[in-house]
Design a protein that fits this description.
The complex is a heterodimer of chains A (291) and B (393).
Chain A lengths: L2 H10 L6 H13 L3 E4 L6 H11 L4 E5 L6 H4 L1 E3 L1 H14 L3 H8 L5 E3 L1 H6 L6 E5 L6 H13 L1 E4 L3 E4 L5 E6 L7 H6 L1 E4 L5 H11 L5 H16 L8 H13 L9 H7 L7 H6 L2 H11 L1
Parallel strand pairs in A: 1-8, 1-9, 2-5, 5-8
Antiparallel strand pairs in A: 3-4, 6-7
Helix pairs in contact in A: 1-2, 10-11, 10-12, 11-15
Chain B lengths: L12 H15 L6 H13 L5 H12 L3 H15 L47 H4 L24 H18 L2 E2 L4 E3 L4 E2 L1 H8 L11 E3 L2 E2 L2 E7 L5 H17 L4 E5 L3 E3 L1 H4 L4 H11 L9 H10 L1 H5 L4 E6 L8 H12 L4 E6 L12 H6 L5 E4 L3 H6 L1 H6 L1
Parallel strand pairs in B: 6-7, 6-9, 9-10, 10-11
Antiparallel strand pairs in B: 1-5, 2-4, 3-4, 7-8
Helix pairs in contact in B: 1-2, 2-3, 6-8, 11-13
Classes of the chains: A alpha/beta (291), B alpha/beta (393).
């Protein structure tokens, strides 16, 4: 499969990927390397993984990172309560200490968290490590072993080798600087906001029934809006919501009803100061330019 | 400024050329190891086409590691493969230049200049600007001062050692932020199951000894922004020594200089030789002692570096007199944005120490609502006295 094929297949499932992104994905799959996607919020980084899983009809294992995430929640944890019960039960049956120990430190008592789950699947899943920059630097160190060797070491059991190599996609949006060691192990692509043509293609793929004239106006409007001084620039998900809001309000032309347009802006502008800065006049001016 | 190379025609085969490309990228500051070179070859092999654009995309995915590099990549690719560079000639290596004070410390331990006079960064003479400031003319100027000043003239090694001590104490005062990650401890608010059960094996499965988990204290990160504009030059000595000391004492700290531009000096100041570090810094702070655009610089900081380096555990320390030529709104907005990152903002203003000083300058009064602490500081002793205030923060 060439990267062009991958791009067309992804487009069929409703994800319009740029050339750079398609090549990077193609390489990530064929070289078995993790892919690090960086970009502003709402440009479709997470969606890449979901589409890829759908395309290859495999499972998507998702690990959402947050500050304070540690190995117990990301990789594995012993099922302590169950172990405790087993010890109690064994004491009553008169089992020997060594036998109990062997039993309670077996795979049966191991709770699989996303990273361990991903490497023990029979068919290679897509592993999405979302917003990796939110996790602490210490967590990156855990990731390194998994991303380079696809193996996890549990001191009580030994090293668990991957049954199949998952396709790993990491996303980050610059909350903190990632370590060079992690960046080195990954292929890298910066995902930009899409240009007008791409965004129109996305809108058409996701909202097939939309009036073409309105669709073009919406894209024109959003593209112009991104040039304004905003705290939170609207992403693609916001564009889709905006389109849904407009068609829900029964508009077929942006300049038709200024009040309705202003109401629909709640789908695009997500902070109080952004909403205050885009007044009805400004919205109309932008709509006028977009038409 | 990108250094240009292209592949030499005598290079045999693609492997040598790809290796040459990796070397070319390395020479231009991209961080690549030999493993990446091998990976680049694999990537090219995995692409079925050898169209230049496909190769460009494949190599981009492999070689680039962050956004800055992503932006540079096209130019670097063109320079090497598209015949826009020139073959780097391997001539007899030029002996390293002597007497240049860009890199080497030209002072001995006592802080006396050991080299000859007349270098490009010669400190200002006795009748120059260095002494003409500080007469109470508190006018913010807009011009960049083009005459270069050597910061080494201002800062002495013994002061840096003293500042290092002060910085350590301030750092210790700030060290009070609870982590979210729990560690095992004798006293704590939650049970540490793993340890408790491990211990219980010794007592026949009976968990006699309960191990707890608690949240440890985490260090805070200090981010220092030092104003080196003309109006601040009287105080620059103290503040620069402090910043230099801070960087040497605290491996997490981050430092910036600003006047009409903002310069990150963190890496520069992490030099083992303190005076060499200051020497480099004076080269970077070209325009030192000129005008000040505080609002603009803070805005720059808030929208670029702060996004990467400032988080809820940071304390942003602004060392400035607040005399700004820009609009006060800009300063307020910048501090507002910065604040939203969850950090604490401290403003140390040398003028606040003056009798009857009121923060009436438009910029300063715009900034006040966003500050967690607004204090005076003229000398290292003043900075040391902040310890108590910082503990309360």
């Amino acid at each position: 499969m060439t990267w062009r094929d991958l791009q067309t297949q992804m487009a069929k499932t409703g994800y319009v990927a740029s050339d750079d992104l398609s090549v990077a994905l193609h390489l990530a799959i064929s070289l078995g390397r993790p892919l690090l996607l960086e970009g502003a919020a709402g440009v479709g980084k997470t969606e890449v993984a979901r589409t890829l899983a759908e395309l290859r009809s495999t499972e998507l294992v998702r690990l959402q990172c947050y500050e304070g995430l540690d190995a117990a929640q990301a990789i594995y944890e012993w099922n302590y309560q169950r172990q405790l019960l087993a010890i109690r039960a064994a004491a009553e049956d008169g089992e020997t200490g060594a036998a109990v120990e062997n039993r309670i430190f077996s795979r049966e008592y191991l709770l699989e968290r996303p990273l361990l789950a991903a490497i023990t699947k029979d068919t290679p899943p897509v592993l999405l490590i979302d917003e990796v920059d939110r996790a602490d630097e210490e967590f990156e160190a855990y990731l390194l072993e998994i991303l380079s060797d696809f193996q996890i070491t549990v001191p009580e059991i030994g090293t668990i080798e991957a049954k199949s190599r998952p396709i790993v996609i990491l996303t980050c949006n610059g909350t903190r600087d990632l370590s060079d060691a992690l960046r080195r192990r990954c292929l890298y692509t910066y995902v930009e906001y899409p240009d007008a043509a791409t965004e129109l293609a996305i809108l058409n793929a996701r909202k097939p029934g939309l009036n073409q004239r309105l669709a073009q106006q919406i894209i024109g409007f959003v593209q112009k809006l991104r040039e304004e001084e905003l705290e939170k620039v609207p992403g693609i998900a916001e564009t889709l919501d905006f389109a849904a809001a407009l068609s829900g309000l029964g508009l077929s032309d942006l300049s038709e009803d200024p009040a309705a347009l202003q109401h629909a802006l709640v789908a695009l502008l997500k902070t109080q100061s952004d909403q205050a800065s885009i007044t009805t006049e400004i919205a109309q001016r932008i709509a006028g330019k977009a038409a | 400024m990108s250094r240009v190379t292209k592949f030499a025609a005598r290079d045999s085969g693609p492997a040598a050329r790809v290796a040459g490309f990796a070397a070319h990228l390395r020479a231009n500051g991209l961080r690549l190891g030999s493993a990446e070179t091998a990976l680049a070859m694999d990537a090219l092999a995995a692409m079925d086409s050898f169209a230049p654009d496909d190769c460009r995309r494949a190599l981009r995915a492999v070689c680039v590691g962050c956004r800055d590099e992503d932006e540079q990549f096209d130019a670097l690719f063109d320079a090497y493969w598209m015949d826009m560079g020139r073959v780097r000639t391997r001539v007899i290596p030029v002996p390293p230049q002597r007497g240049s004070d860009d890199v080497h410390s030209s002072r001995d331990a006592e802080g006396e200049a050991s080299g000859g006079a007349g270098s490009a960064t010669a400190p200002d003479g006795g009748d120059g600007e260095a002494d003409s400031d500080g007469e109470g003319k508190l006018i913010a100027t807009e011009v960049r001062n083009l005459s270069r000043r050597d910061l080494r003239d201002l800062v002495r090694p013994e002061e840096i050692a003293e500042a290092e001590r002060v910085a350590r104490r301030l750092g210790a005062a700030l060290r009070d932020r609870r982590s979210r990650r729990r560690i095992a401890a004798r006293k704590g608010d939650r049970l540490h199951f793993r340890k408790t059960i491990r211990r219980s094996l010794a007592s026949g499965g009976e968990p006699l000894h309960l191990v707890k988990r608690r949240r440890p204290d985490r260090t805070r990160k200090i981010v220092a922004l030092c104003d080196v504009s003309g109006s601040m030059s009287v105080y620059a000595q103290v503040f620069l020594a402090f910043v230099a000391g801070l960087m040497r004492a605290d491996p997490l700290a981050d430092a910036y200089l600003f006047h009409t531009r903002l310069v990150r000096i963190t890496e520069t100041l992490r030099d083992k030789d303190a005076m060499r570090a200051i020497g480099r810094m004076s080269l970077m702070a070209d325009g030192f002692g000129g005008g000040s655009k505080i609002g603009f610089c803070l805005d720059r900081f808030a929208s670029t570096y702060a996004r990467r380096f400032v988080d809820g555990r940071s304390v942003v320390m602004i060392l400035s007199d607040g005399y700004d030529t820009g609009a006060p709104d800009q300063m307020r907005d910048a501090l507002g944005t910065l604040r939203k990152r969850g950090c604490k903002i401290i403003w140390l203003n040398p003028l606040k120490g003056w009798k009857d000083y009121e923060p009436v300058t438009a910029g300063m009064s715009a900034a006040l609502p966003h500050l967690d602490l607004f204090q005076s500081a003229n000398t290292l002793d003043d900075l040391a006295a902040l310890e108590a205030e910082l503990t309360r923060l």
